[in-house]
Write a structure and sequence with these properties.
Blueprint: E1 8-15, E2 19-24, H1 38-54, H2 77-97, H3 104-107, H4 111-118, H5 126-130, E3 133-136, E4 145-147, E5 159-161, E6 168-171, H6 173-186, H7 194-211, H8 220-245, H9 253-266
Antiparallel strand pairs: 1-2, 3-6, 4-5
């Protein structure tokens, strides 16, 4: 995986007891170099696809001895337990939201729909898991994407990824949710053309994966939406409801609720 990471110059184990210090090449994150445009995602996705392809499905087995038992797996007992707990908490927070003056108006129109959907968990779309799993970065936002030539007009960016502590063996679509869909959620200036942006990104990703002999039996666009809903229903809905219930603000809660309603119907959850 060296080509996807900064160069490692020195590794010093057992510092201050049990710490491990890594001395690496200093890389410049994309954030701060350029104002990210939708077209820039097409320069990042090829690196992500190549990274995913290395360990996609049975290819993971040839590298399995490199990873210890602490690597999270999507279908592990621990993750199923965590997922189930998150859904239970989401149900409780939805009920609390219905009596909270700051949330009731937002939640009430979708309350019954979401409660009905949550009963179908903890895995809402088994076909997403069956579509292929691999090692994913797990936190693939622009802060963790570096590029040494981002200001060039060339399309062949040299992309490196940093902050790997969220790496896991999961459906590949979880990385695309963070890279593409959450970026759309945060960028109101992208939302007027969001369908075009995600369609193009999924087209590029599929074409890149095909270069490594990987195809999907289902429309990648649907798989992206399913991963987004799974991630939201099992964890993010609960945490963002709780944030507002505790007096904070959430810029994503409204988008989460809207997408659960719209995509949930489109994908047959209710």
């Amino acid at each position: 995986y060296h080509e996807f990471m900064p160069k490692l110059y020195w590794l010093e184990p057992k510092v201050n007891g049990n710490e491990t210090w890594m001395f690496t090449e200093c890389m410049q994150p994309l954030r701060g170099q350029i104002k990210l445009a939708p077209s820039h995602l097409e320069r990042i996705i090829p690196t992500v696809a190549k990274f995913h392809a290395l360990t996609f499905d049975e290819r993971f087995l040839q590298y399995a001895d490199l990873f210890d038992s602490t690597l999270p797996h999507f279908d592990s007992r621990e993750k199923v337990k965590e997922r189930t707990k998150g859904i239970k908490k989401a149900k409780e927070n939805l009920d609390l939201a219905m009596v909270d003056p700051n949330l009731k108006e937002l939640v009430a129109p979708r309350y019954k729909i979401i409660k009905k959907i949550l009963k179908k968990g903890p895995v809402f779309f088994p076909e997403m898991e069956e579509s292929g799993q691999c090692l994913i970065h797990g936190d693939l936002h622009v802060h963790n994407i570096c590029c040494e030539n981002a200001n060039d007009e060339k399309d062949d960016w040299k992309v490196s990824l940093i902050d790997w502590e969220s790496a896991k063996h999961y459906p590949c679509w979880y990385d695309l949710v963070v890279l593409v869909e959450l970026l759309i959620d945060f960028r109101s200036d992208w939302q007027q053309s969001e369908d075009e942006i995600r369609n193009q990104c999924m087209k590029v990703y599929s074409q890149e994966m095909l270069k490594y002999g990987i195809t999907f039996n289902e429309d990648p666009l649907n798989l992206l939406k399913k991963a987004y809903l799974q991630r939201t229903l099992e964890k993010k809905l609960s945490s963002h409801l709780e944030k507002v219930l505790n007096g904070g603000k959430s810029t994503l809660l409204k988008r989460y609720l809207e997408k659960i309603e719209v995509w949930g119907k489109e994908l047959g959850l209710y």
